Amino acid sequence: MSGNATSATVLGLGAMGSALAGALLTAGRPVTVWNRSADKTKPLVGRGATAAGSAAEAVAASELVIVCLLDDASVREVLKTVSLAGRTVVNLTNGTPRQARELAEWVTEQGAKFLDGGIMAIPPMIGQPGAFVFYSGPKDVFDTHRAAFDTFGGSNYVGEDPGLAALHDLALLSGMYGQFIGVLQAYALIRSEGLSAVEFAPLLGGWLTAMSNFVQEAAVEADSGDYTRNVVSNLGMQAAAFENLPIAAADQGVSSELLAPLHQLLLRRAADGHGAENLTSVIELLKK
Ligand code: FVH
């Protein structure tokens, strides 16, 4: 095997792959990089990285191969051109649990070890406090390379099943996009009267913080399936109040399409006789 214990190869030098390679360089590790568009290797070469002429050459350079491409299809496309035997492939490309499990199986068949990961950071956060990455796959493989992973941010190992990192990643992103939906709708409503979103922002931030207990309270109910305890603001009341959101939006010339799915679920759950429960009981309608 070529390379040494502390070297790493990074396939994919988009915004995130470049940040990952940069963090490894900052930590003093020898790094070999490859990108489909070769010009993106230049800034990293300027910092000491070695640019490989092909993905195969890059994979040959290090036992540890970090993959950060656009999506599962691009990962498959690149990996099928290289020899993976004896390598450890760590896929930090965003994907689904099923994609991770299928890729794990294929990579293992090629004679390589595999971990999947989910990056919970934007590129400038890599190597900074607050960044963290989920990993799943064989624990001994995670332990072997943990020091390299820690250069990216916190390393959060979530289990042997390779699909679990993507599951955790997508669950957090679901929460994030749910919050983004609310923020976008709030600002569209405020702007419909020409008011300043910037001036309104502290009110919104404070309100979301005040409501953040919901995260923990809903978790307890989601686990137990009991939505009847400590009911303060019941679902029926909230379904009725929610009605005003699309009506007001229409009056203000604002679309309510971001709100419509939750509105429909609240109405269905209330019609099914669960109006006296907590709003969390909508989860029952999300289960298939
Ligand atoms: N950037 C972010 O905020 C998020 C944070 C959380 C994790 N995501 C995921 O990270 C993956 C990479 O994201 P990125 O930000 O680096 O994305 P781009 O800057 O668009 O770079 C894409 C790279 O993928 C290469 N690529 C695309 N298709 C192919 C292909 N068919 N064959 C080979 N390489 C391909 C592309 O190459 P090039 O266009 O420069 O030649 C870039 O290297 C991603 O899964 C995020 O969801 C980022």
From TrEMBL:
<dbReference type="InterPro" id="IPR048666">
    <property type="entry name" value="RedAm-like_C"/>
</dbReference>
<dbReference type="InterPro" id="IPR013328">
    <property type="entry name" value="6PGD_dom2"/>
</dbReference>
<feature type="signal peptide">
    <location>
        <begin position="1"/>
        <end position="21"/>
    </location>
</feature>
<dbReference type="InterPro" id="IPR036291">
    <property type="entry name" value="NAD(P)-bd_dom_sf"/>
</dbReference>
<dbReference type="InterPro" id="IPR015815">
    <property type="entry name" value="HIBADH-related"/>
</dbReference>
<keyword id="KW-0732">Signal</keyword>
<keyword id="KW-0560">Oxidoreductase</keyword>
<dbReference type="InterPro" id="IPR051265">
    <property type="entry name" value="HIBADH-related_NP60_sf"/>
</dbReference>
<dbReference type="GO" id="GO:0050661">
    <property type="term" value="F:NADP binding"/>
</dbReference>
<feature type="domain" description="6-phosphogluconate dehydrogenase NADP-binding">
    <location>
        <begin position="9"/>
        <end position="154"/>
    </location>
</feature>
<dbReference type="Pfam" id="PF21761">
    <property type="entry name" value="RedAm-like_C"/>
</dbReference>
<feature type="domain" description="NADPH-dependent reductive aminase-like C-terminal">
    <location>
        <begin position="161"/>
        <end position="288"/>
    </location>
</feature>
<dbReference type="GO" id="GO:0016491">
    <property type="term" value="F:oxidoreductase activity"/>
</dbReference>
<dbReference type="InterPro" id="IPR006115">
    <property type="entry name" value="6PGDH_NADP-bd"/>
</dbReference>
<protein>
    <submittedName>
        <fullName>NAD(P)-dependent oxidoreductase</fullName>
    </submittedName>
</protein>
<comment type="similarity">
    <text>Belongs to the HIBADH-related family.</text>
</comment>
<dbReference type="Pfam" id="PF03446">
    <property type="entry name" value="NAD_binding_2"/>
</dbReference>
